[in-house]
Amino acid sequence: MRGFLLLLACVWGFAAYAQELPAWVSTEGLDDPHLGKVLDTASGVWLPPSMLVESLVSAPYVLVGEKHDNPDHHRLQLWLMQRLQERRPQGALVMEMIGPAQQAAIDRLQGELSQDGLPQDGLTQSEAQLEKELEWSPGWDWSLYGPLVRWGLALPQRLLAANLTEDEMHAIYQAPPAPADVFSAEMLELLEEAIATSHCGKLAEQQFPAMLAVQQARDERMAQQLAEAPVPALLLAGSYHVRKDLGVPLHWPAEGLQAPLVVMLVEAGGTLPDRAQADFVWLTAALPETDYCAQWEQGQ
Fold first, then answer.
1. pTM (2 decimals)?
2. What separation in angstroms does the CA of 247 have from each of 65, 99, 137, 151, 278?
3. CA distance linking residue 87 with residue 209, whole number of Å
4. pLDDT tens across 174-230, in order?
């Protein structure tokens, strides 16, 4: 009977929320039977998005991993935060895409915008004005991240930076510290492989320690910012950063803090993360396959 009731709740939840999910923008993987559903990696059960909300609503810390250029990932992130906000106030939104130099401008704007992005005094503020005031990096597409930033300025107690400064990254690159003790030889090999792939095999071997050190320092900073943020706190970052076996969770301070739950947005057709990498896997439509290395080489 209990199993039947759980199944009934899942069916009802999916029916109730399916129409509310944003329409897919990406064009691939639309025929996947699990599209839009969430894999609970511990049980192997596919859940409706409403059950993901139920699983996260009482969690003090949540990590959400994304593919940066997939618009559906950002639309679902906003949907998830809106649903959680309906159940309880969000303490903080922490973003990899924001650096410490932007925090002062963010703090000035915190609470000044309504949820629809208009200033509380009723005066309009264009996207270009807000992007300029925040000194938003062109490396992060504002059309994708703008709605998330506006939401973070309007509703949570804090919108917080989670990246390193350019000076910090440069210093680490010039004098990279040794890898942290949390990394096994196998983990380091996986990270080096990911770094090599992301640089299209063009990165000189002697640069690997520096790149690995920057990656580690970024994960440490994200863990620190999330742990110190008002709860409930949610971090948005690239999928590699949120991985339980390689990223932010490895650097989580253990003293009296509940470990964060990890949600990874994954495009249909790709390899699904397992229990060691994520707690929940949310399957999304996929962008057409792109040869990023060819684009990168053309830009050189």
1. 0.88
2. 11, 18, 23, 26, 11
3. 44
4. 999 998 888 888 888 888 888 888 778 777 778 888 989 999 999 999 999 999 999
Q: How confident is the model at residue 299 (pLDDT cuts 50, 70, 90)?
A: low
Nearest to 146 by CA among 95, 92, 89: 95
pLDDT at 292: 59
Q: What's the rounded Cα separation, in Å, for the pair 220 and 250?
A: 9
| Triad 297, 213, 175: Cα angle to 5° | 100
Q: Is the peptide bond before 232 cis (omega within 30 degrees of 0)?
A: yes
